[in-house]
Write a structure and sequence with these properties.
With 257 residues, the chain is mostly helical. Helix content is 74%, strand content 2%. The two termini are 37 Å apart.
Length: 257
């Protein structure tokens, strides 16, 4: 009996309870939370990984479904899963911030397109960098590392004792500053060159006010930005790998300890 005269197979109820943490991680984590991923696929993956977690750890679900302690346990599980996915989502915001810095200096900040991850309108350069970061994330098996972290979380934070401490929640919130740091460092090579070009154009405007700088400065900024992106792309790709590694390590240390 699980409350109100209802009965359910214990193994099925344990699987549903296990899927709460896994599903919450998929809702918040990049790639899995993309709009292009159907809900049925997410539920199927959550069920498959839930079975894996049940076979790897001794998970004991609450005895009654309709009980206050059960609702607290479900909120508990959702909090752990959201924390794991949210940390990775913070790191994936770095390319969008870098695109804002670069696109504004190049004069293409108004060019926007639909982001396949969130389904919202974002700068076109941000879409390109986000897709590149997603491909690198998949290339280094970041999605498999995320699944491993979710399964391992049942060892460190078992159901019933999974409340994150106040210090852990504070550190996760403070990790949001890493998105700004990573975004500015990602935009540094191209942004510095465009800053120097804007300084030169500013000095030209002071020396010859009659010169039409809109006809000279904007095409020069666009051309210099494209060339700088082409030259700096290998270094930006290497730093994106650093962002992925830092995000996975932060998810491991901030949540799992």
């Amino acid at each position: 009996m699980l409350g109100f005269g209802l009965s359910i197979e214990p193994a099925l109820w344990t699987l549903v309870f296990t899927m709460v943490r896994v599903g919450a991680a998929f809702i918040a984590a990049p790639v899995f939370s993309a709009v292009s991923v159907p809900v049925t696929v997410r539920i199927t993956l959550a069920g498959a990984i839930g079975i894996l977690a049940m076979n790897s750890n001794a998970i004991i679900a609450p005895e009654q479904v309709f009980a206050f302690e059960t609702f607290l346990s479900i909120a508990d599980e959702a909090l752990v899963g959201l924390a794991l996915g949210f940390i990775l989502q913070i790191a994936f915001a770095a390319p969008l911030l870098a695109s804002e810095v670069i696109g504004t200096s190049m004069g293409i900040g108004f060019a926007a397109a639909i982001n396949p991850q969130s389904g919202t309108s974002t700068p076109a350069l941000g879409n390109f960098l986000s897709i590149l970061l997603t491909l690198l994330f998949l290339a280094v098996d970041g999605h498999l590392v995320l699944v491993e972290l979710v399964v391992r979380s049942y060892e460190v934070l078992p159901p019933g004792a999974a409340w994150l401490s106040v210090a852990a929640l504070r550190n996760i919130a403070f990790f949001g500053g890493y998105a700004f740091l990573a975004g500015f460092l990602l935009a540094l090579p191209v942004g510095f060159l465009l800053l120097c070009l804007n300084l030169i154009v500013g000095m030209l405007s002071r020396s010859s006010p009659s010169l039409n700088l809109f006809a000279v400065g904007l095409p020069a900024s666009l051309l210099a930005g494209v060339i700088a992106l082409f030259v700096a792309m290998p270094a930006m790709g290497d730093y994106m790998l650093v962002i992925i590694r830092e995000a996975l390590e932060a998810a491991r240390t901030l949540v799992l300890g």
